[in-house]
């Protein structure tokens, strides 16, 4: 089952969604011309022709609605964070459930963006003849009505769902590109062929049941917690004596990669990786619990190179236990 990490590109960067705002505005304007053609012609005449009408449309329509766009996208971003919506399984049922889950944001957005949008519209349209009583009566109290709520609902739905689904499409395409790049065969001259027996192959590990010997190639990852060092193995979590620096020097660099200061992962168990947030990438491991770890952007390029070399070589070591260090 395919799963995608939601980066929310259009939601977290509102100005990338200006095209969606224009689409929503043009849809709204088209409906007005369709159902109130004569009234629209009258307005064009009142504003001194087509150019005058376009100017007032831009000043009193498009510019104020930028604040609508920003607030709707901010609400969607906060909603995703509050509900911890970070991943989506790409099945019709889960996608439909996701679309329904974000619907309440669009339904209540009007009550939050309306005061700011109307204030911006008042400042642009009525300049320089400002009147507080007229502003409160027409632009604030007069705009909180059932009629205006439903007039705004269609553009808000276009903005919200357009940004959400546009971001989802970009995330899907980016994930496919990353998988394609990972599967590409690298230049053979860039490969580093490790010599058998040159790297650490087994470790002594200890858990609540006692001590044992574990093969490093079977470990999912190594981590640090409260100044103690652990190996995460299919049979459990084992305490080890080697530090992260020692492991980084002694483990096969074609099989293991240090993602950050306190974590070294086994490339054999990497399922996928994708951008997460704040310059970090999320790495999903092929473990029973689909565990995840994060990695800073600075390590990304080297991580990609290691993955490419690993997929081309798939080196395995099965040395005797006499080589324990």
From TrEMBL:
The chain crosses the membrane at residues 52-79, 100-124, 149-173. The keyword Phosphoprotein does not apply. Gene3D superfamilies: LytTr DNA-binding domain. The keyword Membrane applies. Residues 213-309 form the HTH LytTR-type domain. GO terms for molecular function: DNA binding; phosphorelay response regulator activity. Keywords: Membrane, Transmembrane, Transmembrane helix. This is LytTR family transcriptional regulator. It comes from Larkinella rosea.
